[in-house]
Amino acid sequence: MRPRLLIFRAFRAFRGGLLASALVLSTGLAAAACPFCGPVGPTLGEDLARAEVVALGQWKAAVKPAGELAGRTTFEVVHALKSPDNGLQKGDPVALPRHVAGQVGDLFLLTGYAAENLAGVEWENPKPVTETAYQYAVRAPSRESPPEKRLPYYLKYLEYPDPFIADDAYGEFAQAPYADVVSIRDKLPRAQIRDWLSDPELGEIRRGLYGLMLGLCGNGADAPFLEELIVQDGNEFRLGIDGVIGGYLLLTGERGLAVVERAKIADPDAPASELFSVLAALRFFWTYGEDRISRDRL
Question: Would the pTM of this model clear 0.70, i.e. be above it?
Answer without folding.
Answer: yes
